[in-house]
Structure formats: structure tokens, C-alpha cells
């Protein structure tokens, strides 16, 4: 397999900033719950070292929620809504895991296509722009598409045509 490019819409590029700053968007609680549950399983991290004891049953409930349909999205958002009012205080081990799992510039020179909605309430557009700048400073070719009317849920759809053209060019 030869990697010729990476394309992403509204990507998570700074996990610490995303997970430790509660967002107004109701999807933030689901992102937090899925991250806390999966990382506690994968890395053996204690949930109590990231979220309050009141949050742990919410995280467990969300872990059993699927996320494939609009109805399931509605359920997980409802299940995790109480997380938006609870503090997130990651331990050093959690912060280390966040840093290890945050994308960093790579040395292969593989180009990147990033699309971001300017009205994204889940992924702060400034985080995506900062990531694009770090890639550029590292010498990685970046095509950054900012959509003034795009949000988290429409970024992928609105950028699909440009992304498909960019991907086709990579293979050519």
C-alpha cells in the first residue's frame, strides 16, 4: 500500500483541547464519553482520573449506545447531555494519552486535504487551521478548505466534490 494523500473533514487534531473544554454542542458529551470509555479499556486508564464519579455511569451508558442512525444519535446525545455540566480534569496519564493520540506532522511528505466548517460547534475551526499551519511549517503540502456556512455535520458533504477532485489528482 502506497499512501498518496490524507483527506479529512472537521478532523479532531487536538484531543486535549477538544476533550478538556466542554462545548455548547450536545455532541461534545458523546465524544467525551466514547473517548473516556474506549481509552480506559485500551490503555487501562482510570475513568475517575478524567471525569467526576457522577460522570462514570453516564460514560458506561453511552458505551453501549450505537451511533449509526439519527435515532441512535438522538439517544446518545440525550444519554450524555449531563456531561456538559460536569468538569473534566485529566490526570497526567490521561494528558499523555491525549498527546500520544493527537496527530503530528509526519516526515513522509504525504499531502493533506482538510475541510472545516467555520460554524462548527464541535471542532473549533481554529484548531483545524492551527493543525494545517503546523503541517505547512513541517513542509507537508496542505489544501485547506474553509466553508463559511459549513458546520460539523455538513463539512464532509459540502467538501465532498473538492475532496474527490483532490484525491483523483493524487492518484493521477
Could you give a short description of this structure?
The chain is mainly alpha-helical and 172 residues long.
3D structure, described in words:
The chain is mostly helical. Helices cover 47% and strands 9% of the residues. The chain is built from seven helices and three strands. The protein has helices spanning 15-20, 27-43, 56-63, 70-80, 92-100, 125-137, 155-171, and strands at residues 6-9, 112-117, 142-147. The longest helix has 17 residues, at 27-43. The chain is globular.
Order of helices and strands: EHHHHHEHEH
**Strand order in space, largest sheet:** 1-2-3
Helix content class: 40-55%
Number of beta-strand segments: 3
Percentage of residues in DSSP E strands: 5-15%
End-to-end separation in angstroms reads 16 Å
Radius of gyration: 17 Å
Structural class: mainly alpha
Unreliable runs: none
Number of helices: 7
Characterize the biggest β-sheet.
3 strands, parallel
Q: Based on Cα principal axes, name the global outline.
A: globular
Topology:
Elements: E1 6-9, H1 15-20, H2 27-43, H3 56-63, H4 70-80, H5 92-100, E2 112-117, H6 125-137, E3 142-147, H7 155-171
Parallel strand pairs: 1-2, 2-3
Keywords:
172 residues; three-stranded parallel β-sheet
Amino acid at each position: 500500500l502506497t499512501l498518496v494523500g490524507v483527506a479529512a473533514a472537521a478532523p479532531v487534531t487536538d484531543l486535549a483541547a477538544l476533550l478538556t473544554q466542554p462545548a455548547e454542542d450536545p455532541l461534545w458529551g458523546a465524544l467525551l464519553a466514547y473517548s473516556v470509555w474506549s481509552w480506559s479499556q485500551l490503555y487501562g486508564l482510570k475513568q475517575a482520573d478524567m471525569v467526576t464519579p457522577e460522570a462514570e455511569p453516564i460514560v458506561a451508558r453511552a458505551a453501549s449506545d450505537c451511533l449509526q442512525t439519527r435515532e441512535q444519535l438522538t439517544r446518545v446525545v440525550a444519554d450524555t447531555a449531563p456531561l456538559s455540566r460536569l468538569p473534566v480534569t485529566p490526570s497526567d496519564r490521561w494528558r499523555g494519552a491525549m498527546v500520544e493520540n493527537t496527530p503530528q506532522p509526519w516526515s513522509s511528505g504525504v499531502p493533506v486535504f482538510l475541510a472545516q466548517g467555520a460554524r462548527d460547534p464541535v471542532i473549533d475551526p481554529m484548531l483545524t487551521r492551527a493543525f494545517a499551519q503546523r503541517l505547512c511549517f513541517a513542509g507537508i503540502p496542505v489544501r485547506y478548505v474553509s466553508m463559511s456556512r459549513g458546520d460539523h455535520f455538513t463539512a464532509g458533504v459540502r467538501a465532498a466534490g473538492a475532496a474527490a477532485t483532490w484525491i483523483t489528482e493524487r492518484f493521477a
